[in-house]
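User: Can you help me understand a structure? I only have the sequence.
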Amino acid sequence: MSLEIRPVTRERAREFVAEHHRHAPKTNMFFLFCLGVYEGEDLVGVGIAARPAARGADDGLTVDVQRCCILEAKPNAASMIYGALLRAAKAIGYRKAITYTLEDETGVSPLAAGFKAVTLSGRPNWHKGGRTSHQVDIFGNRTVNESRKRRWERDL
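Assistant: Let's start by predicting it. Here is the structure, written out as C-alpha cells:
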C-alpha cells in the first residue's frame, strides 16, 4: 500500500508524537501547521512545523521543523514529511527552515531533505534563568535532557 500526505489536526499530531516519539514526546506551543503520512487509513507518521523556540531564530521568516515522527519500518515516510512541510512553508512565505537532532543521531533525514548541519549546542544540560530544561515522557515523568543538539538549516 502506498503512502500519502494529508492534513492532520494539531491535537492528533501531538497525540501521535506523545505515543511514538522515542525521546521527545512533548511539543511546544508554537505550532504553525501539521501534516500526516497515511498508509491507507492508518496514520503512520506526522510532521510539525512551528515558530522557532529560540528567540534569535524567530525572525518571522524561519520555520522550525519541530517533529518528524514516523513509525518504524515505513521507508520514505520521513522524506515525504520533510518535503511536504518544506514545500508548504515556502508556499506561505517562509525563507529558511531549521530543525534539530540529538548529537548521537545520524541526521540522515534532515540531510536527505537538503539541510546542512551548522552548529552543536555548547552544553548538554542547558539552563534558562536558573531552571533546567526538562522533557516529560509519555507517562508524565519529568526527565532532564542530557543530550547536546545539532542544529540544521536550509534555505527555502
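Now, to help you interpret it: The mean pLDDT is 83. The chain has one domain: 3-121. Let me know which part you'd like to focus on.
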